[in-house]
Design goal:
With about 210 residues, the protein is an alpha/beta fold. It folds into two domains: about 140 residues, Rossmann fold (3-Layer(aba) Sandwich), CATH 3.40.50; about 60 residues, Orthogonal Bundle (Arc Repressor Mutant, subunit A). The chain has ten helices and five strands; from the N terminus they run E-H-E-H-E-H-E-H-E-H-H-H-H-H-H. It has a five-stranded parallel β-sheet, with helices on both faces. The longest helix has 15 residues. This is DNA-binding response regulator. It is found in: Cytoplasm. InterPro entries: CheY-like_superfamily, NreC/VraR/RcsB-like_REC, Sig_transdc_resp-reg_C-effctor, Sig_transdc_resp-reg_receiver, Tscrpt_reg_LuxR_C, WalR-like. It holds the Pfam family GerE.
Amino acid sequence: MIRVLFADDHEMVRIGVSTYLSSQSDIDVIAEADDGDDAVKLALELKPDIILMDLVMKKMDGIEATKEIINTWPKAKIIIVTSFLDDEKVYPALQAGAVSYMLKTSKASDIAEAIRKTYNGHSTLEPEVTEKIMLKMREKPDKKLHEQLTNREKEILMLMTEGKTNQDIADQLFITLKTVKVHVSSILGKLEVQDRTQAVIYAFKHDLVH
């Protein structure tokens, strides 16, 4: 079972989504929070597999809650579920450590699928979110950290931007899965990012994707 914590200050949203998720054979909503402060406390206490996080909540917003959780528990997997597509919401949420970004207009079944994908190490971004991120990232490139990457690491980064999993990359490049994981870890370190999603965002921001 994928253990889920759902943080949202709208009770009807929580009830609707939680009811659907609980009907799935592989998902268990173990707790709910109606503000960011409680979300942080429950996340660190229960250590759920996935945290669904609203952005605008009482006491502490979703971005700050995400930062608090990630700072204490870096392995937390947080999916933003919000109504906002504003640039000042999307990018800070991903910078804070969220690995997926969904809209409340999404079907409950899409949110369930995002939970499964995130649980298995992938990221899910709404098409509108991906477009905004790409546009935003192209505005002001910063340090060229990618110049530190080896040719092999650059090759793997490009495959990551195509949505390839570690196993896909290993199969395509005829190298071991362990070797891919070592390269991915090195890429994240050199680009000063926390996860694959942020590495992909970096690649788009610096026009590395052809």
